[in-house]
Amino acid sequence: MESYGSLLKTARENKEMTILDVERDTAITRQYIEAMEEEDTAVFPGEAYLIGFLHNYAEFLGLNGDMIVSLYKNKKLQESPIPDGLVPKHRPVWIIPLVSLLILAGLGGIVFGTVKLVGFITMLQAQKAEAAEETQRFHTYTLSEKPLQRRIYKGDHILVPQSEGNIDLAVANTLGLLQLETPAGLQVIDLSDEVELDIDNDGVPDMIVYVSDVSNTDSDRGAEVRMLLKTGSAVGITNLDEIQSADELPTNATQFEILTDNRAYPFTINASFRANCLFRYRIDRKEPIEDYYSSGQVVTITSQNGTRLWMSNGNVVKLQVIANGRSYELESVKAGQVQTEDVKWVKMSDGRYRLVVVEID
Question: What is d(CA 64, CA 97) in angstroms, rounded to the nearest whole number?
Fold first, then answer.
C-alpha cells in the first residue's frame, strides 16, 4: 500500500518547497506538516484535525485530497489489532495421533472460524463506509464581506482570505458553544455572542462571528452561525471617488447618522420580513432587484458605497446595518406606509466619512 506521508513529502520536494514555504502559504503550522509527512498521528488533537489538514495539504500540493485521506484510513484499519478468534494457533506434534478422534470438533471449529471471519470482513466494510461518510460530511467554506450564514459542524473548515493567502480555521467543538482552531490558538464563541476575532495574532480583528443556535447536549447538531470578514480588512474596499459629498444632499431630506469614521468601507444590510412585502433594492448604482417576500424570509445586501431601499409596507421590514463590526437597527415606519430610503456613505468637509440613512420622498 502506498504511504500517504511519502506521497506528500515527494510532492512537496518535487515542487522544490521547504516546510517553511508550505507553512507560510497554507497557515498550517510546521509541527502538523512534519507530522503528516512522517505519519505521526499522535501530534494532532483529534482525528478531525488530521483529516482536515491532510485533505487541505494534499490539495495544496496538487494531489487528490480524498485519495490521501483514504490511504490514511486504510492504514489505520490495517494497523488495528486482529480479534483473538482470527489468530491461528499451532498444535504441538504430540496432538497428531489424536486428530482422527477430533475430526468432528475440528469441523465445528472451522465453521466457527468461518463465521468469525465473515463477521470481521463485514465489520471492516462497515468501518470503511462509516469513514467515507464521515470524510464526506466535512465541508470547507470561504469567507467574504458578504455574511456566511449556515449550520457548521465539528471537522468543517473556514478559509479566511488575507493578503498573504488563506488562513484555514478548523471547527473544533459545537457542544454548548463554538470553538475554532486558529493560528492564534483556540477561539471560543458562546451562544448569542457576536465577537470580533484576531485569528493571526497581529492585533487587528480579521472576522466577525455570531452564534445563533448551538445545543448543550448534542454536538452532532452543529452550530448555526453568521460569519463575515471584518469590515476594513475585507477584499474590495469602497471606491471613494463615487462617494457623494454631504453638501450635495437635499437640504429638506430627513436623514440620520449611523456612524462616522476616518475611512469608508463596505457595509451589510439585513432585511427581515414579518409579513408580506414587495421589496426592491439597488446596490451601488447597479440594476435594481425586486421581489415579493413573506414572513420569515431574510435578504442580505452588501454594498460598497450605498444602497437604495424601497418597501411597499415599511412597518413589516426589520432593517439591520452591520458596519465596522457593529450592528445598528433602523427605525420602522407606520403600518401600510411606503418607504424609500438611501443607506450610504457621504464625505464630510473635514475629510471624514459618515454612513447615513436618507429618506426619499
Answer: 58
For residue range 283-337, what is the model confidence (pLDDT) as tens digits? Answer: 987 899 999 899 889 999 988 889 998 888 878 889 999 987 678 888 766 666 7
**Beta bridge partner(s), residue 304:** none
- pTM, full prediction: 0.39
DSSP H stretches of helix in 83-225: 103-137
Determine the residue type at 152. I
Strands 339-347 and 244-245, sheet pairing = parallel
Distances (CA, A) of 88 to 82, 85, 102, 123, 334: 11, 8, 17, 20, 84
Question: Which residue matches cell numbers 467543538?
Answer: 173
In 10 A of CB 242, how many CB atoms?
14
Task: Report yes or no: 289 and 280 within 8 Å, Cβ to Cβ.
Answer: yes
> DSSP of 29-65, one letter per residue?
-HHHHHHHHHT-GGGSSSHHHHHHHHHHHHHHTTS-H
Rg of the chain over all Cα atoms, to the nearest angstrom: 29
pLDDT in tens, 170-193: 999 999 999 999 988 889 999 877
Helices (H), the chain: 4-14, 19-26, 30-38, 47-60, 65-78, 103-137
